[in-house]
Amino acid sequence: MDNQNGYPPLKPNNGKLFKNKDKVAGDDRPDYSGPFMNERGDEARIAMWLTTSKAGNKYMNITVSEKFEAKQQIPQTAPEPVAADVEDTFFGDNGRF
User: Fold this and answer.
1) pLDDT at 88
2) Number of neighbours of residue 46 by Cβ within 10 angstroms
3) What DSSP character marks residue 95?
4) What mean pLDDT do residues 15-19 have?
5) Do the beta carbons of residue 9 and residue 16 sit within 8 Å?
6) Cα-Cα-Cα-Cα dihedral of 58, 63, 68, 71, to 10°?
7) Quick one: 35 exposed, middle or buried, by C-beta within 10 A (0-12, 13-18, 19+)?
């Protein structure tokens, strides 16, 4: 059965590479990337760059990294108010009635 992206499900120690259609000459994004599953069944990301060595030999540079997840927005909380040891000048009598 195919997964939601239309390719067969991953098996341990296997991955799928897809051409990066958004790559622009000179940027550092991979030429190909896709999902990868390690031997324990954990999903990861595989990326591949087509490269040429100083000697002119062509090769593929491949990295496997943690699965990319869209970063969730962490709600910003207001800092805890800090009690001040300063006399309340608004009332002029340290706030007492």
Assistant:
1) 46
2) 19
3) T
4) 92
5) no
6) -100
7) buried
Task: Give 20-84 as a 3 state SS string.
Answer: CCCCCCCCCCCCEEEEEECCCCCEEEEEEEEEECCCCCEEEEEEEEECCCCCCCCCCCCCCCCCC
- Residue holding tokens 């869209």? 70
Band the pLDDT of 60: cuts 50, 70, 90: very high
Q: Of 65, 18, 20, whose CA–CA distance to 46 is shortest?
A: 65
Query: Residue 7: what pLDDT?
Result: 80
Amino acid 60 reads M
Give residue 23's Cα distance to chain centre.
18
